[in-house]
From TrEMBL:
Domain of life per record: Bacteria
Taxonomic classification: Bacteria, Bacillati, Bacillota, Bacilli, Bacillales
PANTHER family: UPF0173 METAL-DEPENDENT HYDROLASE MJ1163, UPF0173 METAL-DEPENDENT HYDROLASE MJ1163-RELATED
Every Metallo-beta-lactamase domain range: 19-205
Reaction catalyzed: 3',5'-cyclic UMP + H2O = UMP + H(+); 3',5'-cyclic CMP + H2O = CMP + H(+)
Chain's role: Counteracts the endogenous Pycsar antiviral defense system. Phosphodiesterase that enables metal-dependent hydrolysis of host cyclic nucleotide Pycsar defense signals such as cCMP and cUMP.
Species in which this protein is naturally found: Paenibacillus sedimenti
Protein name (Swiss-Prot/TrEMBL): MBL fold metallo-hydrolase
Length: 245
């Protein structure tokens, strides 16, 4: 199994002749200013067989890009509850999934499991398995109590892709909490340990930092290294870099 990091929270998984992408992003949400990293045309990353989406937010679900680069008929799988939220798109093959549901995409199987969104919207994590290798992508989840249930039902994992930017929001109409709506480096390290991670791949960092609306947690890379030390193997990938499990 090959795992390639895409911008922001995106991941491409390839096994044998099957490839899927999870949360690919090309059109940067304008409310967050300018991206701190170039957005990569999805066509640069090769053909894919299906798209898996953790939730409908604009930095994780980019329907215009999916239709543009993959074609309007590309199979897209996302939480069933999100289908009522996304509205009209050019995509013609969008499918809802529920917790515990498994789909087959060529040589890969993908299972929807628990994830908890930072502002209470529907969200899932995706477990992807090819042969005897298994990875999980947890979207932009915050800390929750499902880690042990996921580990018991599906773990251990050869790779875990976890958000790490500990983002704090101050959106119009929202009373500021000062609390992170995605995992901090320390929380992500603890989740990786619980999930039995062979390696921990940080995602969901770097591209967006637009105070006061959206603030990434400080000292990110030093804290990642410190949190991982003697606990879990940390694999930091730049965009387009990949590892083979």
């Amino acid at each position: 199994m090959n795992i390639q990091k895409l911008p922001w929270a995106g991941i491409r998984v390839q096994f044998e002749t099957t490839s899927i992408v999870i949360d690919p992003l090309f059109h940067f949400p304008s409310k967050f200013g300018q991206p701190h990293e170039p957005m990569v045309p999805l066509s640069d990353l090769g053909a894919i067989d299906a798209v898996l989406i953790t939730h409908h937010h604009g930095d994780h679900f980019d329907p215009e890009a999916l239709a543009m680069f993959y074609g309007k008929d590309i199979p897209v799988h996302m939480p069933s509850e999100s289908l009522e939220i996304i509205g009209e798109t050019k995509l013609t093959n969008v499918n809802g999934v529920s917790i515990g549901q498994t789909i087959q995409v060529g040589a890969l199987t993908a299972t929807a499991t628990y994830s908890v969104d930072g502002i209470g919207d529907p969200q899932i994590a995706w477990i992807v398995q090819g042969g005897d290798k298994k990875m999980i992508h947890c979207g932009d989840t915050l800390w929750h109590g499902y880690w042990w249930r996921i580990a018991k039902s599906y773990g251990p994992f050869d790779a875990v892709c976890l958000p790490v930017n500990g983002a704090v929001l101050e959106l119009p109409g929202m009373t500021p909490s000062g609390q992170p709506i995605s995992l901090t480096p320390e929380q992500a390290a603890s989740a990786a340990v619980i999930l039995g991670a062979g390696t921990w791949i940080p995602i969901h960092y770097g591209v967006i930092h637009h105070p006061p609306i959206y603030r990434q947690t400080p000292d990110l890379f030093d804290r990642l290294q410190a949190a991982a030390q003697d606990r879990v193997n940390l694999t930091l990938l730049n965009t387009k870099e990949s590892i083979t499990l």
